[in-house]
């Protein structure tokens, strides 16, 4: 039985296969409409979500399966003190696969160690968000036709942004990837990402405070929200929350084929005027999330793609 806790749980070849299946699902959705008939997905969300939970549910419904679950800790027996280990043992009696989001780092790992069904990490605190990464990889591949040889700018909250940590982990495995890490010093990437991921893999990167300076060289700009829910004090959040705002004027500094991604939700970091720019790809990205989660559910349930 396989779980997905970290993007590195899959080899590059397995990720390539997933992206290929997701691409076929996009082109031929009806072919996949019954491949998971009779299967059930549990969505156990202890933290708020719009895209991840609903795209997982849409993915399973599109495959012919059913969904059950909870969308907040308060509406589950976690509110009465039940442990994750006990919860997943019980969910294993009700469902065939589980997507779990939790505010504590390592929660999905604990669940996987006590589970009778595949567990998908749908975000664990400030740590990892591997299915967002699969979404991001599919989006980049669809837009640029490749995942290698790209200069990727990551901008905003690189400290608490789990999507950033997962995406860096995944992209360092492709040749000639360069990163430009754009953040205020207080929100720079954690030391383990700089040392154990970037430097350990000899990946070219630089850290900047200024978005304008970075924009002309980027192939992809990945904007992120300042993660209010992970701050210990509100004063710091208020001081940092609007540190970067992407505007049409700034977009003039970028290449004509530079795409803007954002895992969403957006707060202020991309002005709504940018949405009209054909390089704004964040809503397409949310759509790709359904295709790749369909491919992932099939892989973990060992359901073969129909001919
Ligand atoms: N991108 C993402 O994880 O969005 P949600 O928090 O709405 O699931």
Write the layout of secondary structure elements.
Layout: H1 12-27, E1 40-45, H2 51-62, E2 66-70, H3 84-94, E3 97-102, H4 107-113, E4 119-124, H5 130-144, E5 151-155, H6 162-171, E6 178-182, H7 191-199, E7 204-208, H8 211-214, E8 220-223, H9 234-240, H10 248-251, E9 259-261, H11 282-300
Parallel strand pairs: 1-2, 1-3, 3-4, 5-6, 5-8, 6-7, 8-9
The structure holds phosphoric acid mono(formamide)ester (CP).
Describe the structure.
It is a single chain. The chain contains eleven helices and nine strands. With 307 residues, it is α/β, with parallel strands linked by helices. A five-stranded parallel β-sheet has the order 7-6-5-8-9. A four-stranded parallel β-sheet has the order 2-1-3-4, sandwiched between helices. α1 packs across α11. The mean pLDDT is 96. The protein binds phosphoric acid mono(formamide)ester (CP). Phosphoric acid mono(formamide)ester binds next to α2. The site of phosphoric acid mono(formamide)ester has 9 residues, from α2.
């Amino acid at each position: 039985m396989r779980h997905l806790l970290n993007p590195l749980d899959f080899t590059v070849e397995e990720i390539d296969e997933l992206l290929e299946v997701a691409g076929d699902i996009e082109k031929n959705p009806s072919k996949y409409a019954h491949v998971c008939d009779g299967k059930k997905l549990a969505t156990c969300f202890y933290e708020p979500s719009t895209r991840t939970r609903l795209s997982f549910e849409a993915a399973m419904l599109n495959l012919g399966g059913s969904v059950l679950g909870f969308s907040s800790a308060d509406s589950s027996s976690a509110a009465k003190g039940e442990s994750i280990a006990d919860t997943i043992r019980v969910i294993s009696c009700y469902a065939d696969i589980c997507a779990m989001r939790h505010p504590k780092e390592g929660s999905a790992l604990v669940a996987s160690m006590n589970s009778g069904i595949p567990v998908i990490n749908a975000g664990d605190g400030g740590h990892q968000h591997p299915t967002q990464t699969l979404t991001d990889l599919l989006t980049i591949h669809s837009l640029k036709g490749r995942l290698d040889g790209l200069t990727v700018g990551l901008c905003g909250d690189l400290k608490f942004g789990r999507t950033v940590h997962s995406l860096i982990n995944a992209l360092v495995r492709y040749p000639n990837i360069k990163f430009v890490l754009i953040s205020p010093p207080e929100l720079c990437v954690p030391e383990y990402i700089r040392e154990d991921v970037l430097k350990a893999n000899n990946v070219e990167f630089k850290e900047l405070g200024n978005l304008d300076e970075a924009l002309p060289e980027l192939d992809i700009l990945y904007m992120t929200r300042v993660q209010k829910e992970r701050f210990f004090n509100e004063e710091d959040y208020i001081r940092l929350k609007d540190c970067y705002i992407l505007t049409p004027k700034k977009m003039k500094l970028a290449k004509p084929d530079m795409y803007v991604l954002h895992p969403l939700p957006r707060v202020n970091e991309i002005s709504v005027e940018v949405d009209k720019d054909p390089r704004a790809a964040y809503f397409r990205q949310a759509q790709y999330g359904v295709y790749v989660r369909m491919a992932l559910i099939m892989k973990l349930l060992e359901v073969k793609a129909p001919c």
